[in-house]
C-alpha cells in the first residue's frame, strides 16, 4: 500500500512565508529557507513552494530563493507561481525543483499541460486547482483565487488528468485557513473519478482533520501551512497519530 504524504506549504510573498484565511488577510510566517530546512529534518514527505503573487504581478518565480531552499532540503520539492511556458520549468528544475505546479496558466492554455508532460514526464507536473463552492457547485478560481470562472472543478480535473498531469493539488477556498477540516466530500469525488494522486489543501486545524481526509476524503497527500508554521502540530507527532489510526505513513 502506498504511504500517505504530509506536505508543508510555503506561500511566498516578497521573499517571506505568509499565511492567510480564505486567500486573504496574510500574515508573516517566517523565513522560507529556514522553515524548509526544519520541515525536511522533521520528517515531511515533500515540500511545496508557491510564489503566490507571481501570476498577479506578471513575473517569474523567485529562482534564487528556489535554489537556496533546494540546497537545504533532502525531500522532493514542488515549485509554483508564474509558470507559463516550457522554459520556465527548465529554469526551475535547474534551480533545484523536483516538480512544478501550474494553475492559472493551465486554465488559460490547457495545451501547456500536454507540452510539459511530454517534455518532462507526468511525474514532474502538478496541476493546482483553487475552487470555491458557490450555490452547491465547485467553481475554479484563478490568479490566487481572485478571478472566478464558470469552470466546474470535476470536469477540469478530468481534463487535467487526460492531458498528462501527474497529480492534482486541490485547494478548497471555502476551507482555506479556517482550521475546520478539509473539503472531504469533494476530495472523495475527485479520488473516485480520477486515477492520479489527489493532494488535499485548505482547512487543516488538528490531527483529526488529517485522519479524516485520508479515511473519508481518500486523499493521497495532505498539504498544510499555518498549523506547521506556527508550531500547532509537529510533523513527527502527526505521523505517529496517523500510524496509530492504521494510515500508512513514512516514519
Structural class: alpha/beta
Averaged pLDDT:
90
**Percentage of residues assigned to helices:** 25-40%
| CATH topology category name | TIM Barrel
Shape: globular
State the strand order across the main sheet: 1-4-5-6-7-10-11-12
Tally of separate domains: 1
Strand residue content: 25-35%
CATH superfamily, called what? Aldolase class I
Rounded to an integer in angstroms, the radius of gyration calculated over CA atoms is: 16 Å
Descriptive keywords:
alpha/beta, 28% strand, 8-stranded parallel beta barrel, 251 residues, single chain, 10 helices, TIM Barrel
Structural description of this entry:
The protein has 251 residues and is an alpha/beta fold. The protein has one domain (5-244): TIM Barrel. The protein contains 10 helices and 12 strands. Strands 1-4-5-6-7-10-11-12 form an 8-stranded parallel β-barrel, surrounded by 6 helices. Helix 1 runs parallel beside helix 2 (63-72). Residues 21-25 have low confidence and may be disordered.
